[in-house]
Amino acid sequence: MLDLKLIRNQPDLVRAAIRDKGVALDLDELLRADAEQRRLQVEHEALQRQRNENARNVKAASAADRPTLIQRGRDLGASIELLQPEIDAAKQRLRDLMLVVPQIPAADAPRGATADDNVEVKRWGAIVERGYPLRDHVALLKLHGWAELDRIGRIAGSRSYALRGTGAMLEMSLLRFAADKLAGKGFTLMAVPSFASDEAFVGTGHFPAGRNEAYRVDDRYLTGTSEVTLNYLHAGEILNEADLPIRYAGISTCFRREAGSAGRDVRGLVRVHQFQKVEQYVICRNDPEESAAWHATLLATSEEVLQDLEIPYRIVACCTGDMGAGKVRMNDVESWVPSEKAYRETHSCSTLHDWQARRSDLRYRDANGEIHMCHTLNNTAVATPRLLVPLLENHQREDGSIAVPPALRPYLHGRASLP
Description:
The structure is a single chain. The protein is an alpha+beta fold. The protein has two domains: 4-98, Serine-tRNA synthetase, tRNA binding domain (Helix Hairpins); 115-418, Bira Bifunctional Protein, Domain 2 (BirA Bifunctional Protein, domain 2, 2-Layer Sandwich), CATH 3.30.930. It has helices at 4-9, 11-21, 27-60, 66-98, 137-144, 150-156, 166-184, 198-204, 227-232, 288-308, 355-360, 388-394; strands at 119-124, 147-148, 162-163, 188-191, 195-196, 216-217, 220-222, 238-240, 246-255, 274-284, 313-317, 329-337, 342-353, 363-365, 371-373, 375-384, 402-403, 417-418. The strands form five sheets. The protein has an eight-stranded mixed sheet. The chain has a three-stranded antiparallel sheet with strand order 5-7-6. Strands 8-14-15 form a three-stranded mixed sheet, with no helix packed on it. Strand 6 (216-217) and strand 7 form a beta hairpin. The protein is elongated.
């Protein structure tokens, strides 16, 4: 959510963001709703003043004048009561529109409509050409009996998976590896629920636009990232500047309907409905330079993860049409998948400035006692089973065995090779 004053004072800037991000919003409709809400509020306040003044006049009135003034007070009260539903409806209408307003993207963010317009900014790691046929991750899992893909599909449906034996240990090792790395960098580990309220999803900006991507269970929704919970954890609070930044490493089971991806990546572990994730999440001061520094830090941590795992990757600057409504800037980190001869997104680093904080009422008090909206950022540390795809494929040997990177061996009883 943007500052309403910014929208009023710089509508052309906001219109450009709406256009660049491809958001379906008529800003003039929002401005009209804002004007109507303010008109009704002014009318309400005028009636309240009249009623208060009339109440004072009743006390000082003569016996002859008092009945007339009392009736006027009743009439004013009735007018206020009749006006309140209009005010409530106008406020709700304005809020509904405000929730759709996108964040202003960074001036240097690529302008474009889809992922095809993203701009590569870095590559790391050599793409090794092997002199033997490569197996994809599904073939490797089946070769070693590390997964149940066909049987589990009969139980849980398509886009489900079950890892067996060493496959399960490998997934757990990645999650523990990521958690230890973030703890070593001063992040507080937070194992959080996999469900949250509608308000929490609105707070992150996942709702209303992404409602069809979430599973609903009674009056809660299953989360696709612990960011939903961590962003709303301090909702409505006024934090102390001295306690910032807050760094959380969110650990959770995640769920995503993948409603808009029919027919895509239905085989294997790439696009599943349930997955595990360790997420980096930061709440910091309302300072663009500090946000930029944290963005660089979170992005560097993702690079460390992939470098430690010896997985080649590239970084792209996401264009405005691909970065999501709330982002100031976004970088995807894409890992090399040999069987596809392509890079696949495994990490996504986002800066949102105060866009989420306004939705969640997330504030802090500075040393001078002034109240400010916080800035928020997030990035993946590890998401499984997706990361297993490049890990297995990049470290396979000719016989199908898997070389274990040194950084991961402590989590696999020191084993240098699997099985």
